[in-house]
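Notes to self after the Tuesday call (sharing in case useful).
The group wants a holo model before anyone commits to mutagenesis around the pocket. I volunteered. Ligand is zinc ion. Logging inputs and output together so the record is complete.
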Amino acid sequence: MTITQFNVGTLLQEPVGSRREIRFETNNSSAHPDENHRYFYGLAEMIKIQQGILVSAKLTVADVTMNCAGCLTEFTKEINIEFQEEYLPTYDLETNRPIPADEDVFRINNRMILDITEAIRQYTETAIPIAPKCREMCAGICTLCGKDLNQSTCACDSNEADNQFGPLKEYFK
Ligand SMILES: [Zn+2]
Ligand SMILES: [Zn+2]
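Result:
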């Protein structure tokens, strides 16, 4: 079972400032290399605000897949994210009037379920470094033969050095 959905029906009817603290996590067995099935766990605080609920979450997303900027190898890394987002219900519980909002606003569904999965997905994407490294000192790939230099060295280095001085050698002949 994945605990990323919370029924906020009661909290929505409580006075502004009422809060809940919720620990959540995805079940380990649901961990999957697919980016939508990442394993994550953390803490979320939900505070009733005027029209909806303010969620402050702090969590760890395990096994985020990325490609090393140096050697292009795919690897996984744990990422910590933190966010604060407002979630609005689709209608006002007291007046039954619809609550309009922009498309990018997080919504609480009609069954009063607040689901933080999409926010986690978005914040995780943002947290992935632009040029991730598989290790501190990634040796990268050889620009000449394409060999992964973390695995083995190649013969290109010395050849390249030779080529650099090649023209000079010719000159001094
Ligand atoms: Zn690398
Ligand atoms: Zn090479």
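Two things stood out.
The CA atoms of residues 19 and 65 lie 34 Å apart.
The helical segments are 117-127, 156-172.
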